Amino acid sequence: MRVLQFSGGLDSLVCLHLTQHTPDMVVLTASTDGAYPERAVYLQAVEAAFPDLKFIHITTHRALDVYGYPVDVVPLRYTALGALIHGERRPRYQDAYSCCHRAIWEPLDRETRLLGATTVIRGQRADDRMRAPVKDGQTVDGLTYCLPIEGWTRLQVQRYADKHLPDLVPASYSQGEKTSRDCLDCTAYLRDNRVRM
């Protein structure tokens, strides 16, 4: 079985279009408890555009009450462990990667494995500033990664989407955003979130 991990961004949208006729493929997406309100409507539109594919939506929780809000720079005293060590009741913060891992990346990986997948399809580009440490065709812990747009540029992805999927390009991209919208109240990724903040 193959699982396409769909973020809701342009890269995964183009991957979905390119691989839609792949046999035995399931589209898996995770929405957190902080998802943008319009995300559900957008995912419904994507699902309607690809009626022959099976979509699985999972909802995850970030446990912000335990770990705090994600930030780009974390003072140790303000982490859950730091507050415990110092015996202080301060606002808690966590690094952004830990929050994303706990609420998106790990649940996607866990569900992918529960489905019995042997291949993961992702919209990851080699020129992307943030990407997983895998390459197209690489097998890690029993999963082989298929990265159909690994050699594409951001501009190539945008042009492809504008040409083949104009009705499914998220409006946020025309407003200057360059990544998928994950959590409405995200307090990290200032470099990427500046426009929406």
* β-sheet strand percentage: 15-25%
Task: Using the CA coordinates, give the radius of gyration.
Answer: 18 Å
Low-confidence runs: none
Overall spatial form: globular
This entry's quaternary arrangement is single chain
Structural class: alpha/beta
Mean pLDDT: 91
Measured distance between first and last alpha carbons: 39 Å
Most strands sheet: 6 strands, mixed
Number of strands: 8
Number of helices: 8
Topology overview:
Elements: E1 2-5, H1 10-19, E2 25-32, H2 39-49, E3 54-60, H3 64-67, E4 69-71, H4 80-86, E5 93-95, H5 96-114, E6 119-121, E7 139-140, E8 143-146, H6 154-164, H7 171-174, H8 190-193
Parallel strand pairs: 1-2, 1-6, 2-3, 4-5, 6-8
Antiparallel strand pairs: 7-8
Helix pairs in contact: 1-6
Quick take:
By secondary structure, the protein is an alpha/beta fold.
Question: Could you walk me through the main structural features you see in this protein, from its secondary elements to its overall organization?
Answer:
This protein is an alpha/beta fold. It is 36% helix and 17% strand. It has 8 helices and 8 strands; from the N terminus they run βαβαβαβαβαβββααα. It has helices at 10-19, 39-49, 64-67, 80-86, 96-114, 154-164, 171-174, 190-193, and strands at 2-5, 25-32, 54-60, 69-71, 93-95, 119-121, 139-140, 143-146. A 6-stranded mixed sheet has the order 3-2-1-6-8-7, sandwiched between helices. α2 links the parallel β2 (25-32) and β3 (54-60). α1 (10-19) crosses α6. The chain is globular and about 55 Å long. The mean pLDDT is 91.
